[in-house]
Fold this sequence. Notes:
The protein is α+β, with helices and mostly antiparallel strands. The protein has one domain. Helices cover 28% and strands 26% of the residues. It has helices at 6-18, 66-73, 93-106, 135-147; strands at 33-36, 48-52, 87-88, 110-118, 124-131, 150-151, 153-155, 158-160, 162-170. Helix 3 (93-106) packs antiparallel against helix 4.
Amino acid sequence: MNKSRLPRLAAIGSLAIAVFTVTATAQDSSPQYTLKRSPAPGSLIQRLGATSPDLPLNRRYAELAEGEKAIVRGWYEPLKPGDEPPYPERGLRPVVEAMMKFQGRLGYEGELYLDATVDADGRVSTVKVLRSPDPEMSRLAATVLVDTPFKPALCAGQPCRMDFPMRQVLKRGP
């Protein structure tokens, strides 16, 4: 392999890790999931849209393996046994797809960090923008979260109010 291509390949590898995912790849022993963008007009090529090395985006919280649930629980202050964090009812895929759609249309790049407060009934009551590449992207992303039904958090076995952190790195496709 040409040594001049190594830095470029490393950068491409870093890009794939930084984004989110839904089709399993067989190259790595640990599961990895990807989400493809729709082909551009006149093309049949589906570009990588998002990659998640840890979580399947198309699964509900109840469908996650115990190790995957541990990853989600790790996003929070230590939860007591039996407590569960809130999670999108239909999994992360619809949320990430909506974010990709807006990002693709608007072309924003950068870190998008949001905290959605999920009430005991599974509805998002507020969204706090912690970091965003643009106010318009913040508004659209907050709308996506407010419109997303959630499995409410469980505290001592009872539905309760808790924040859901949404972290995404937005990048334009090649």
